[in-house]
Amino acid sequence: MSAPGAEHALRPGREGGAPAPPRPRLVVVAGPTAAGKSALGLRLARRFDGEIVNADSMQVYRHLDVGTAKPGPAERAAVVHHLLDVAEPDEQFNAGRYAELAHAAIADIVRRGRRPFLVGGTGLYLRAVLEGLLAGAGDPAERARLEAEQREAAAEGDPERLHRRLRALDPEEGARIHPRDVKRTVRALELLGAAGRRPSELRREHAFGERRYERLYLVVDPGREALAERIDRRCEAMVAGGLLQELRRLRELGYGPELASMQAIGYRHMQPVLDGLDTLANVLESMKRDTRQYARRQRTWFRGVPDAVWVDPDDWDGIEARVAAFFAADQPAPAVV
Is 333 part of any domain? Predict the structure, then answer.
């Protein structure tokens, strides 16, 4: 077995066989909502002289604080946080733009001799940073056409029409995507049209691309029952902490319910309360239910990460030892006397 870090020396350089420089080491703290990612990331960053790069797709928006469980002034004073409050709620913000900002933040952290911790639960954002986005930029007009065709097919009682087409054109990708997963089916067909090649082929090429970072991918999960309890308490705390008042301020700033950011969990639930169409007690229960369902989807996503290490947020000693070993592997071996 090679010594830790030996893979760096074995990777050929671009010119003359010179060894390539070691890749920056990056700790990912991922997991479902309310699992304890933020608290663990904060503790790890303080312990290992690090800074946090946010990987929550809603915390990038200004003014969305209570409903996104955004780190507050005390947390930001304790550890430097990047990619919080970088977009207005009505801005178009996607994984590609996020990845560009995240790479720049990580490079800056490493340049200053500190350690980056990528913390958040948005799987697509994490993938965009760690693996890049699939080749083929896609075509918004084609996407709109496919979405319209899907709506028409569903209205005619044939919701799997596009998926059958995908299976015929790319059986491997069709087998990977669930027949009722409209979003991914449309995206695959869009990529096929834009790139002129099967998405499964693009995915394989993408998988063999060299990683930009040496990573330790931690998935924080306290267990299903504990997570459900934490979700319920968080939803209650958000309501008690002023989620409805925050939404009212957002409306006053001109951010209406039609915006994508305003359709996030919590904000969309409070809209009918603000409009006098429902009660806070009713929407709180639906908010808890929808958050638990979202957490289940997140857990499913993270199960697909092959090198993920699942950890209990209460196992601090074990997590600390694992992270310490990860960083120690990047240190040069002592000189032989």
Answer: no
Hey, what are 155's tokens? 């209205």
CA torsion sign for 310, 314, 318, 319 is positive
Beta bridge partners of 54: 119
Is 225 domain-assigned? yes
Helix axes 316-328, 37-47, angle to 10 degrees: 50
For residues 108 and 50, the answer to whether their CB atoms sit within 8 Å is: no
Total count of domains within the chain:
2
* Mean pLDDT of the chain, nearest integer: 88
**Which pTM does this prediction carry?**
0.77
Angstrom distances, CA of residue 175 to CA of 192, 198, 201, 331:
15, 13, 14, 43
The percent of residues above 70 in pLDDT, for the chain, comes to 85
Helix (H/G/I), strand (E/B), else coil: 218: strand
Same domain, 94 and 225: yes
Domain membership of residue 334 (yes or no) is: no
Angle at 201 between CA 162 and CA 210, to 5 degrees: 135
Q: 226 and 324 share a domain?
A: yes
For residue 215, the Cα-to-chain-centroid distance in whole angstroms is 15
Question: What is residue 176's three-state secondary structure?
Answer: helix
If asked whether residues 104 and 174 sit together in one domain, one would say no
Max alpha carbon distance in the chain (Å)?
Answer: 78
Q: Is 209 exposed, middle or buried (0-12, 13-18, 19+ CB in 10 A)?
A: exposed
Q: What is the Cα–Cα distance from 179 to 182, expressed in whole angstroms?
A: 7
Domain that holds residue 116: 6-131+211-328
In a domain, 269, yes or no: yes
Helix (H, G, I), strand (E, B) or coil at 193: helix
118, 102 contact by CB (below 8 A)? yes
Quick one: pLDDT at residue 332?
55
3-class secondary-structure state, position 39: helix
> Same domain, yes or no, for 161 and 122?
no
CATH number at residue 160: 1.10.20.140
Per-residue pLDDT tens digits for 281-321: 999 999 999 999 999 999 999 999 999 999 999 999 999 99
